Automatic annotation (TrEMBL):
One of its GO terms (cellular component) is SAGA complex. It comes from the Eukaryota. Residues 3-41 form a coiled coil. Residues 152-256 form the SGF29 C-terminal domain. Keywords: Coiled coil. The lineage of its organism: Eukaryota, Metazoa, Chordata, Craniata, Vertebrata. This is SAGA-associated factor 29 isoform X3. Residues 192-233 are annotated as: Disordered. InterPro entries: SGF29, SGF29_tudor-like_dom, Tudor_SGF29_rpt1. The keyword Nuclease does not apply.
Length: 256
């Protein structure tokens, strides 16, 4: 029943998202005329080689209107991003519910170890579809946005992807990409599922897991030189540092 309810809500959200996309285009088309007027006014000012009180007053009004139009479009886009984030959350909840429902199905054993290339492709797709956080001027990014860490009392939820430190077969510790199954406040222990080998549960007691980002916030949230855990085509993470290419300059930020 929960799965049916989630499907129904996702369908509603997709309809609402489609309407917001149409509103965005309508708002952009409506404001286009004002932007053209601004450009033409500047061209006339250059021709006359002076800024008269008339042009000053006209431009002030045009720019005020353009600012209001841009804010209206931004508000619509933020609503659309909220819908996308809610859809992604519902899809994840549906996946977890389906997984739990199938845990006791003996006809579907855990899958074998995933090929490394397939895993890397899935990780890349997951990173590319992270919800985008775009705050208003003065807003601070939320925890788990880009490289912003989680709060000290944060407890990872079932289904969260984390970098988990576990003991290998030889007794050495290593960081693996895992999915949280449950957390016990009594024992301060996480039960996690190895992403690379589904069905291989690992108990985590040595340290809290490192949560993967829940939202993308631009390169300004991931400064160059910051220590990080790098997922390579191997069974575990490797310690590394962020380094932006292109003459050591980060790409343009998507956040304010």
């Amino acid at each position: 029943m929960a799965l049916v309810s989630a499907d129904s809500r996702i369908a509603e959200l997709l309809t609402e998202l489609h309407q917001l996309i149409k509103q965005t285009q309508e708002e952009r088309s409506r404001s286009e005329h004002n932007l053209v007027n601004i450009q033409k006014t500047h061209e006339r000012m250059q021709t006359e080689n002076k800024i008269s009180p008339y042009f000053r007053t006209k431009l002030r009004g045009l720019y005020t209107t353009a600012k209001a139009d841009a804010e209206a479009e931004c508000n619509i886009l933020r609503k659309a991003l909220d819908k996308i984030a809610e859809i992604k959350s519902l899809l994840e909840e549906r996946r977890i519910a389906a997984k739990i429902a199938g845990l006791y199905n003996d006809s579907e054993p855990p899958r074998k170890t995933m090929r490394r290339g397939v895993l890397m492709t899935l990780l890349q797709q997951s990173a590319m579809t992270l919800p985008l956080w775009i705050g208003k001027p003065g807003d601070k990014p939320p925890p788990l946005c880009g490289a912003i860490p989680a709060s000290g009392d944060y407890v990872a939820k079932p289904g969260d992807k984390v970098a988990a430190r576990v003991k290998a077969v030889d007794g050495d510790e290593q960081w693996i990409l895992a999915e949280v199954v449950s957390y016990s406040h009594a024992t301060n222990k996480y039960e996690v599922d190895d992403i690379d080998e589904e069905g291989k549960d690992r108990g985590l007691t040595q340290s809290p897991p490192g949560d993967t980002p829940s939202a993308a916030g631009g390169s300004s949230r991931c400064p160059s030189g910051r220590p990080t855990l790098r997922q390579t085509q191997r069974p575990c993470f490797r310690r590394s540092s962020l380094c932006w290419p292109c003459i050591h300059r980060p790409p343009a930020s998507t956040g304010p």
